[in-house]
Amino acid sequence: MNFSIVVHGGAGPRSPDDSEEEARQGCLEAARVGYRILRQGGSALDAVEACVVALEDNPRFNAGTGTTVTSECTVELDAAIMDGRGLQAGAVGALPPFANPIRIARAVMERSPHVLLVAEGARRFAESQGFSACAAEQLITPKTRARYERERLARSGTSSHGGTVGAVARDKDGHVAAATSTGGMLFKLPGRVGDTPLIGAGTYADDRGGAASATGHGEAMIRTALTTQVCRRMREGATAQEAAEAAISELSFIRGTGGVIAVDRDGRVGLAFNTERMARASIANDLETAGYL
Ligand code: GLY
């Protein structure tokens, strides 16, 4: 049986303080972490979680360490994970600072009767499960603080902060999974929840079709139910690449910007984006591919 993995590290405009090589390398290293798990017979679920933890720990990306901040310079994290076996899912939204929100999303899926926990309730649940909150300063890099100050001066309030991370995988047993994690949009209003933790918008997995993870302007992903669209098309027989391209053309229809990665039930990988760049990497049949533009 084919097994494969795709990760993304955010889609958006090119930024002068962005390092293309760092982004490609960070994605490739994360993909290797997940691929090793798949090669050893591990599950797609474990693989996507491990990939996203690696990306959350990399300050180059807008998730965990490296997160962006709200208009009040506070940290509110979103993350979701979904298992294509039986459509199990767990997510957190507007979560106070924790190093690895994706692990908490998995705990919501496996150790609570709920799918999505937000804000203070999510924090209390996380601590009850043994996760430790951290200081916001631990996650906010000097680069993010400088971006925030620039944005505060410009007062546009709509700037994107590319670097949401995600992973999709298909394991040797034919199961698929998706995971996505983000700090959201720079200068978002406190309380804003994006597409990432909304099952079917930023994250979706269904063994009957495949798995998808989105990045980009969350409000547009929510309005188009983007990852649901990708997985529905794969379930109807489209390849991962065909499904990703069709969903991004729907996104363009409402002038939304972003990208999506996908793996279909046969292990074929796909990706599409309508932004200047999307950091990504995939490994299938031991063949590594990484890209940025
Ligand atoms: N796609 C990430 C966000 O809009 O929050």
Structural descriptors:
8-stranded mixed β-sheet; alpha+beta; single chain; binds glycine; 293 residues
Distinct ligand kinds: glycine
**Subunit organisation of the chains:** single chain
Give me the secondary-structure category: alpha+beta
Evaluate the radius of gyration.
Answer: 17 Å
* Relative helix content: 25-40%
> Total number of β-strand segments?
12
Summarize the structure in words.
The chain is of the alpha+beta class and 293 residues long. It contains nine helices and twelve strands. The strands form two sheets. An eight-stranded mixed sheet has the order 4-3-2-6-5-1-11-12. A four-stranded antiparallel sheet has the order 7-8-9-10, covered by helices on one side. A hairpin with a 4-residue loop joins strand 9 and strand 10 (269-273). It binds glycine (GLY). Glycine (GLY) binds next to strand 8.
Structure, briefly:
The protein contains nine helices and twelve strands.
